Structure formats: C-alpha cells, structure tokens
C-alpha cells in the first residue's frame, strides 16, 4: 500500500514538473516573441518621437498630443519600446486602458480627449484576428496615442480638465505634485493599471454622489423618461390634466414623490403640493406649493442641460485637494449656504448672503484663525468713496446716523477728524485721504461677530444687522463678504477647543460694552469658498440652483474651446 502511494506521488510530481516546464517554456516563448515585436516596433516609435523633436509637430495620426514632453521623456527612458502592445494585439494593460477611456463618460469626461475614435480606427487597421498584421507606423501611432491618453486621463482626473485659476478659483496651490511618468512605470511593472488609474479619481463623498446621480440621469436620457413642463405652466391645488401628469412624473424622477400611482388621473392634491414644496426647498425656490414661472422654468430644463450641469460641478470637485481635513467649513456661493463638515457629515448648516454679481465673492481656500466679537468696521476705500462720500454730500448727518467716525489714516493711533471741519464738496475718489470706521454695536455692518481668515481679497464671514435678508431665496446682496445666518452657533462650534468659551459666555461678551474682543482659535479650521450649482443631499436627491455669476457658462465654454493640457500637480 505504501509502495502504491509513493508511486502515485512520484507520478504527480513528474506531471507537475512537466507542466511547470511546459509553462516555463511557453512563458519563455512569449517573452521571446514580445522581445522580437519590441525590436520591430521601437524604431517606428523612435521615428515618431524624432518627428516631434525635429519637426516641432505634436500631431500623431490625425490627433494632437496633449502631453508631448511626458511622452518623449517616457519613451526615451524605455528605449522606445511599445507600452500597450502584445503579440496578439493590445496587451492586457492596453485593453484595460481602452476600457477605462470608453467608460470615462461616467465621470463626466469626454472620450474624444483621449483619442478613442483614432485608437479604435488604428486597432482595426493594425490588427487582423487580434494579431498584429505587420509592424507599421499605424502600430507606432497606436502606442503613442494610448500613452498620451494615459497621461491626459490621469492628469484630468487628478486635477481637472481646466486650470481653476482661469475660472477665478484660487485652489491650484493646494495640489500635491505627482509624477505621471513614475505612475506609468509602476503600471507597466505591476500590470495593475486599473488600480493605478483609480488612484487619480476624486474620492470626495460629494463627487461620488454626483457620479451616481449622473448615472441615473444618463439612464433617464437613454430611456427617454425625462419629462419637462412648458415655461408658461401655472398649477395649484385642485388642477388636473396633462400638465399635472407631467409634473407628477417629473417629481417621481427627482425623488420628491415615492408612491407611483396610476398617472392617468392625477389631481394636484395636498400630497402633490407637499412634493412641490420639497422640490422648491431643495432647489432654492420660494416655498409655495404652487407651480408658477420660476418653477416652470426649472422644470422645463432639458435632460442634456441637467447632465451638463452635473458634469460641470464634477469638474469643479476635481479642483479640490484630494485629502480634506476632518473638520472644515464650506461655503457654497451659488447655493447661498454654509456647512460645517465633520468626518464627512454636516455638523452645522446655515444660510449665507453672498456678493452681488458685480461684487462677486471670490472662490478660494484659507483657514479661520480668529474671531472678533463686537468688531469695528474699517470701511473699504471703494465703499467709502463710491457710496458713502456721495451720501455725505447729500446729507451732512449721514455719518452720525450710521455711527461712522472719520480718521486721518488707517494707523491705530490716527487722530479722529470732526466731519464738520471737512470740505466734503471738494473731495473726490482721487483726492480722498480720510478713513471711515463704524463703531461696534447692533448697527454695525459686520454685526456682532467677525470670522477672520488670511486672504488677499479682504473678505470674511460676519454677522449682519439686516437679518430680514435671509428670508430671500436669492441672497446676492453683499460687496463680496459673506454674511451668515447663525453666527453664534458657528462661533460656539469653532471655539469648542477654547476653554471657557461656551455659548453663554460668548453671548455675555457680545451683550457687554467690550469692543473688538479678539479670540485666537486653539484649533484653526480650514474654509473652502466654493461654487456649486448642483449638489446631492443625504437622501441622494440632487439640487440645482441658478448660475448667479455665469460661471457654469464660462466653464462650459472653456471645456469646449480649450485643448486639454497636463495641468497643475502633474510633473514629468
């Protein structure tokens, strides 16, 4: 029995050794075939690289290269060996890259930027029965275009298709430099190109949520299920008819209605009115429960327009740093709201008043470092000369009514000047040398709270005496600073690491006569001033708001007219 077992074991070992030998020989054969292929193709690739260097051209096949310098660097480093080709056509790595490009629309990206049509054409031209027919320039073109597609796709996923500074967004300095050539080398060595490309994709929770909604809206378009209402639609409770049915179907798609009844005899009843209110609340409309011109205008948006709006906001999300802090403040200028995010969840939300379209609030990242209670307001020169000087000329008591004092300069010890001693009619913006300061109090334009963060724009968060403006849906009323609805709540949250600064104590100081009380945050908090015209709530429902600064249109124009480049953060 033992002898038989040993015989069986011996046979198994022989078989295993034989299989291993066959596999080794096969691998050696594949390696030799790949080496032979590389020897045939590398001179062709070198010829294309030489044409880039000497003829100063960046056109390969029928398309412009987006990253010629990176391509030259990489091919020179690898002796011009093909990267994406195997003996049977595209290698597994090449197949993966083409698949990623083909599905880039799921991230709101355009496959045309990655040469997909030319890659498909070259594959048909160069391969027969999944074999390379004969090494030719077409093969070299294919490999080069795929390399360019890798660099362009990775860079655009990492930092966006457009330079954010061209969109008045000062976020570029927050990107950590990456080496795209090193990334390609790692992909080539490991074969894990799919995982490496995933590392470039934005992982912000809001980006992932937008991506899911984009998929849903693409499905609406493909199935033809998206409904719109004519802009002259006016509906209220008790109404029936085709337009009520269209409204019902639309609110089913947006998730404002969840019970799908027979849509043949829909009545505009209480439940439909409540669904309309939910839609109005989410989309920054006046909450009436009725359909009038503003609602009809929004409900008339074509599915392609909504898809484009989602894609534009996904592009903006790609401009954000890949790693966000645990706690941060984010202000959405287009949505007129502020949220404090803690561990990816909203800890505090409130309404915001932002800059007028001709006094736009800038978009940037900074860090809140201190809070001032009962602040003085040092009036900016543009407001002093543009608005207050003409008012003083009309009414000599204007400054007194507004509790504004006049000083000889901005120096802390500058002498105060009596308004009665100034010849106001002789002053203009060009010869105005005085400085206005508004005293602390309930009348102060900054209110009782001022939240400061370093920036070159001289804007900040602050309280306001004009609380009534928060009842407005569109709140673009300021000169650029952001007035917030719940300053005490925000102060309490930001000061939670500062011993003794409880909500009650903060309120006591505010109610006192103590002026300009500066509190340094023990734990500074990053603030992101952003512009989202589309975002997703915790229920997976999307909100769309008007493009108050026309930034969507500007970004859309840039994306269509500008050839994509390797952008910030991408290094050779």
Low-confidence stretches: 1-29, 564-572
CA-CA gap between termini? 67 Å
Record the strand order, biggest sheet: 9-10-11-20-18-17-12-21
What structural class is derived from the secondary structure elements? alpha+beta
* DSSP strand content: 15-25%
Anisotropy-based shape: globular
Number of helices: 17
User: What radius of gyration results from the CA coordinates?
Assistant: 32 Å
Overall mean pLDDT: 88
The largest sheet, given as strand count, sense and whether it forms a barrel, is:
8 strands, mixed, barrel
What does this structure look like?
With 572 residues, the protein is an alpha+beta fold. The protein folds into four domains: 34-197, no CATH class; 207-305, Muramoyl-pentapeptide Carboxypeptidase, domain 1, CATH 1.10.101; 325-373 and 445-557, L,D-transpeptidase catalytic domain-like (Beta Barrel); 377-439, no CATH class. Helices cover 42% and strands 17% of the residues. It contains 17 helices and 24 strands. The strands form seven sheets. Strands 9-10-11-20-18-17-12-21 form an eight-stranded mixed barrel. A four-stranded antiparallel β-sheet has the order 13-16-14-15. α1 crosses α2 (68-77), α4 runs antiparallel to α5 and α8 (205-223) runs antiparallel to α12. It starts with a helix and ends with a strand. Mean pLDDT is 88; it is low at 1-29 and 564-572.
